[in-house]
Amino acid sequence: MYDIALSVAACVRSGTRADVAWMVLPIASDQALALTPGGGRIGQLASGAFDGLLTDAAARRLSTGRLVDHVVSEMESPICELPAGTAVQFLVVPAEQFPSQTWSLLLDHSPLVVVAAMSKDMVTAINIEPGGADARPLINVEMDSITTVIAPTPRLIIAGGGPIADALAAQAALINWKVVIEPRPDAVAGLAATLSPLDSVVVMGHDVEVSSGCLMAALESDAGYIGALGSLAMQNSRADWLAYRDVTELSRVHGPAGLDIKAATPAEIAVAIVAEAMAVHRQ
């Protein structure tokens, strides 16, 4: 739900309807989908396999949330990576049914326990409680309630592409970080608005303007680690580009990125960068 919190909070403030959908069986995760009138979709759930089903449920515009039952079809199976015939359940709940503080807590990337009080398939109330520091995604389905524990997963935004980006993505996946590879400054800027101190951004690339634009977006975010690949000459060129745009505070930038382990191959460079990011996050 963390990825959609900013957009849903904006809908709540403006009085625009938004329905929040998430899976309660068989998989627990922090993924959610926000659905707005007219077919708008924000976020991603099960790789989009059930977007049509959930859009239809939200289109009913009910005043309270509902439990949606479904069986994975042969067509949906390769998309959601669940076997065909698997029973799945979703909650689809109007944003206004959540306590008002829900979205600010999600924007702060706080672990949350979301308790949906149920009467058959109807959500009669949504209550939230703080999750502990060791919270892990969990679903508990009972006769009269469904409890969802959501906890933030660190994200790594890789601004660039190529062998080092691929190796970095593979290394981060080993420690269960969510990875997004995105070379476009405008897209990085959009992602930056959702980043928290748990998250990392690594900027690479030989184009000074493109990579500097990505670095500027990273500096405007709350990312806890910002790494910049490239030679000292490239680092200086980016600094000049940023200074021309009145961005001179670069103390958060680790460049050249990575611990000094004399890394040479893409895989070694990836190890050095992830290790440095972990060390910075744990300070």
What features would you describe in this structure?
The structure is a single chain. The protein has a 5-stranded antiparallel β-sheet with strand order 3-2-1-5-4, covered by helices on one side. It is elongated. Helix 5 packs across helix 9 (266-282), helix 6 runs parallel beside helix 7 and helix 7 (208-219) crosses helix 8 (232-244). The model has no long low-confidence stretch (mean pLDDT 92). The protein has 2 domains: 2-150, no CATH class; 155-282, NAD(P)-binding Rossmann-like Domain (Rossmann fold, 3-Layer(aba) Sandwich). It has helices spanning 5-14, 51-58, 77-80, 102-107, 163-174, 185-192, 208-219, 232-244, 266-282, and strands at residues 19-25, 33-36, 40-43, 66-71, 87-94, 112-119, 122-130, 138-141, 145-150, 155-159, 178-181, 200-203, 225-228, 253-254. With 283 residues, the chain is of the alpha/beta class. The protein has 9 helices and 14 strands.
What does this entry show, briefly?
The chain is α/β, with parallel strands linked by helices and 283 residues long. The chain has helices at residues 5-14, 51-58, 77-80, 102-107, 163-174, 185-192, 208-219, 232-244, 266-282; strands spanning 19-25, 33-36, 40-43, 66-71, 87-94, 112-119, 122-130, 138-141, 145-150, 155-159, 178-181, 200-203, 225-228, 253-254. α5 links the parallel β10 (155-159) and β11 (178-181).
Note the topology.
Elements: H1 5-14, E1 19-25, E2 33-36, E3 40-43, H2 51-58, E4 66-71, H3 77-80, E5 87-94, H4 102-107, E6 112-119, E7 122-130, E8 138-141, E9 145-150, E10 155-159, H5 163-174, E11 178-181, H6 185-192, E12 200-203, H7 208-219, E13 225-228, H8 232-244, E14 253-254, H9 266-282
Parallel strand pairs: 10-11, 10-12, 12-13, 13-14
Antiparallel strand pairs: 1-2, 1-5, 2-3, 4-5, 6-7, 6-9, 8-9
